[in-house]
Amino acid sequence: MAMAAVLRREGRRLTQPINALHSSLISQDQAPHGSRSVSTQVVRNRMKSVKNIQKITKAMKMVAASKLRAVQTRAENSRGLWQPFTALLGDNPSADVKKNVVVTVSSDKGLCGGINSTSVKISRVLHKLNSGPDKETKYVILGEKAKAQLLRDSKKNIELSLTELQKNPLNYTQVSVLADDILKNVEYDALRIVFNKFHSVVSFLPTVSTILSPEVIEREAESGGKLGELDSYEIEGGETKSEILQNLAEFQFSCVMYNAVLENACSEQGARMSAMDSSSRNAGDMLDRLTLTYNRSLFLSLLHACLIVFNIQFFSGKYIK
Amino acid sequence: MASSGAVPFWRAAGMTYITYSNICANLVRNCLKEPYKAEALSREKVHFSLSKWVEGKPEKPTVRSDTPGQ
C-alpha cells in the first residue's frame, strides 16, 4: 500500500510536465530554447526508475504467492486444533476479569497492506474495553510492526515482545515454546489473542480468541452455562479437576497461538500479494502516462526544431523574393 | 495455581504442560526410523527473540533457538 501511495504521488507530480507542455504548445515563442530536450531526459530517467519499481513489486508478488501456498495448507489444517477446545470450553470474549492480557499477532516485515494496523486497532479497543479502576490490561506483542505502532501511545502497558518468528518455517514446537514463555512471564486471568484470520487472498477477518485461566474456567463452570458440561466427561487418571483444567488451558493456549500465528502469516502473504499486485499495476499505469509524455515532448521538440529551420529559411529570403 | 493433592512430578519440577508434552513429543519423534527421523526433527526448529518490558522500555532481548530438550 505504501508503495502504491508513493507511486501515485510520483504520478501526480509528473502530470505537471504534461500541463507545462500543453501551455508551451500555445506560447511556444516564450519558452526558452533547449528546455524541451532537458524535460525529455528527466522523463526518460523517471521511466527507467518506474520500470525498475515495477519489476521489484512484481518479483515481491511472486515471492508472496509462493510463500502463501506453502503456509495456507498448514493454516487450514491447524484449524482442527482449536476447534475441539472451543467445542469443549467455549469462547468467552465477554468474560469480565481483573488481569487481562492482549496478545497482538503481527508481522515482522511491512508492505503488506493494513493487516497490522487492523490488529493493533482491535487490540486498542480490547484494551479500552477491559480497563477499569481495579482492572489492568497488558500487551504481549508478536512481530515488529505492532510493536512500532503500540510503542507510540501505550508503551507503559507492554509486558513482552517477541520477534523473528518466521526465520524458520512456522511449526508447532516453536509456537508452543513461545506460548510457554508467555505463560511463564505474565500473570493473567484472560488472554485475548488478536490476529487476522485468513479468509481468502483479499479478505482477512480480524479475530479475537479468548483463553481463560483455570481458576476463571472453574468459576464459570460453577455458575453454570456451557462450561458446566465439563463434569459430564469421564476423565482418566486420579488427577483433580483444577489440575486438568490447568493443563487444558495451557494446551489450549499453545494450540490457539499456533493457529493464530499461522493464520496471520497466511493473511500477511495474501495482503502483500494484493498490495504488490496493485502497486505494479499502478507502476504500469504511470509508465503508460510517462511514455505518452515522453513521446509528445519528443515530437514537440522535433517540431520545434523544424520550425526553427523553417523560420530561418523562410525569413532569410530564400522563399520571399 | 493451588491444586489440592499430589501434583504430577513434572509440574513439581517447574514445568508447564506445554514443556512436558513437548518433551514427550520429542521422545516419540526420536523413536522414528532414520529417513523419517531426520526429517521430523529438522521440521521442528525453534527460533525467536523475546524481550521483557519494564516501565515502557524494552530490556535486552533473549534469543531462543533450536529444539528444546536437545
UniProtKB/TrEMBL annotation, chain A:
Its main location: membrane. Belongs to the ATPase gamma chain family. The keyword ATP-binding does not apply. It is a peripheral membrane protein. It comes from the Eukaryota. Mitochondrial membrane ATP synthase (F(1)F(0) ATP synthase or Complex V) produces ATP from ADP in the presence of a proton gradient across the membrane which is generated by electron transport complexes of the respiratory chain. F-type ATPases consist of two structural domains, F(1) - containing the extramembraneous catalytic core, and F(0) - containing the membrane proton channel, linked together by a central stalk and a peripheral stalk. During catalysis, ATP synthesis in the catalytic domain of F(1) is coupled via a rotary mechanism of the central stalk subunits to proton translocation. It is found in: Membrane. It comes from Vigna angularis var. angularis. Keywords: ATP synthesis, CF(1), Hydrogen ion transport, Ion transport, Membrane, Transport. GO terms for molecular function: proton-transporting ATP synthase activity, rotational mechanism. The keyword Metal-binding does not apply. GO terms for cellular component: proton-transporting ATP synthase complex. InterPro entries: ATP_synth_F1_ATPase_gsu, ATP_synth_F1_gsu. This is ATP synthase subunit gamma. PANTHER family: ATP SYNTHASE GAMMA CHAIN (PTHR11693), ATP SYNTHASE SUBUNIT GAMMA, MITOCHONDRIAL (PTHR11693:SF22). F-type ATPases have 2 components, CF(1) - the catalytic core - and CF(0) - the membrane proton channel. CF(1) has five subunits: alpha(3), beta(3), gamma(1), delta(1), epsilon(1). CF(0) has three main subunits: a, b and c.
From TrEMBL, chain B:
One of its GO terms (cellular component) is mitochondrial inner membrane. It is found in: Mitochondrion inner membrane. Keywords: ATP synthesis, CF(1), Hydrogen ion transport, Ion transport, Membrane, Mitochondrion, Mitochondrion inner membrane, Transport. GO terms for molecular function: proton-transporting ATP synthase activity, rotational mechanism. The keyword Membrane applies. Pfam families: ATP-synt_Eps. One of its GO terms (biological process) is proton motive force-driven mitochondrial ATP synthesis. Belongs to the eukaryotic ATPase epsilon family. This is ATP synthase subunit epsilon, mitochondrial.
